[in-house]
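The instructor's notes for this session suggest beginning with a concrete chain rather than abstract definitions. Hand out the sequence below and ask the class to guess, before any prediction is shown, which regions might be ordered.
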Amino acid sequence: MHQALMTDLYELTMLAGYLREGMHQQPAAFDLYFREAPYHGSYAVFAGLQPALEYLSNLAFTDADLRYLAGLGLFSREFLDFLKEFRFHGRVTAPREGEVVFPGEPLLSVEGTLAEAQFVETTLLNIINFQTLVATKAARLTLAARGGQVIEFGLRRAQGPDGGLSVARAAAVGGVRSTSNVLAGRRFDLPVKGTHAHSWVMAFPDELSAFRAYAECFPDSSVLLVDTYDTLTSGLPNSLTVARELRAAGHELLGIRLDSGDLAYLSREARRMFDDAGFADVRIVASNELDEHVIDSIRNEGGRIDIYGVGTRLATCAGPGGGALGGVYKLVEYAGQPRMKVTSDPAKSTLPGCKRVLRVIDDNNHFVMDVLDLREGTGEAFSPGQVAYDPANSQRHKAIPLNCSIVDCRAVVMEQGRILHPAPSLEAMADYCADQLQRMPDGSLRLVNPHIYKVGISERLLKLKEQLTTHLE
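After discussion, reveal the predicted structure:
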């Protein structure tokens, strides 16, 4: 559970300032979005909505929180009394978890009083940034596996205990549907998977004794780690011996795990040896610093791996363009008026007003582009035949084909501080994500130099942006 004090100090100092200036009850709206797709890709997978909504619905300062803040010597008694009754009573608009999302478009839109909508910035960014980044990494791993299974093995390398739980949850949204993390398995109803460590083998007089002991403990679920000494001359022959002994006793060896060496070559050899011996159903598991690029290389080289255990590079979101999702949280409306940040760096300017995220879909049910339109405004709602403009250069524009349909990617998920619908299962989120990814344009899912998905803005949003830019200049 996220606590009220899990925030940056400046959220509290701004809140105190808004209260002193009498601004805290004015209506305000903020958009949470990211500027660049992670991993030099073209998309992200949205995750973290349910934890974010649970944080908002439970937000409250305890007596211990207030005593601590009083001890800082920064805040007035009036402000501390205000915090005692502080709750989130606002509205949140968001996509479904597992939705494919793109740079520049709002993920969460948060509306409420200025005090409510401003204060929750840090925690919402903490939740959404990390879980969306993990879900995106998981989707890339799953796509690279091309039908192979991926297991989350990252707890020991995760960013602390809470990070380990968040990784397991978000990875499931992106398609990595099982974990080695037992607490995550219980909390999120995920299948838990695992084998044994090299230390198990080393603790016995020899490798064969270790394998036999493990198989006796788990005769119907044994996966044997075969690279403690030598994979080809020791681990695989000994695991085959145990496979024969299990079968003779009415059981079957479930699998073997490779954790070092040339995984493409070793997996081919393992598959040949087990197939020749009549054990075609034995699964081959691989681990050892895997990521989507390594998995893709193994597949391209004819590797015969069934299951990929991915730890460090999933749990830490490692890789070029990874590490962190640069999500930001910007004011777009205050006191009923649109707001816009104009800066010397055009990439950091913002789009004003409360918006809809519209997805253009062709007659083959594939995504064409997204369009940001004002939620309310003059003129008819955006529709096929109208023009979408590049938000960075209005000279680049495109008319939406008449044979396309347009859907709103988001819905109101919280009203008056209450969650409107129960969360679907992680399995349902993963299924939804897989379906959405298959509807992406050709080339968008490539690991290297992908097709960049377009996000445009409507004419009326463009006019509002130009009007405010002129006024602010």
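Then share the key points. Residues 121-145 form the longest helix (25 residues). Residues 277 and 297 are 28 Å apart (CA to CA).
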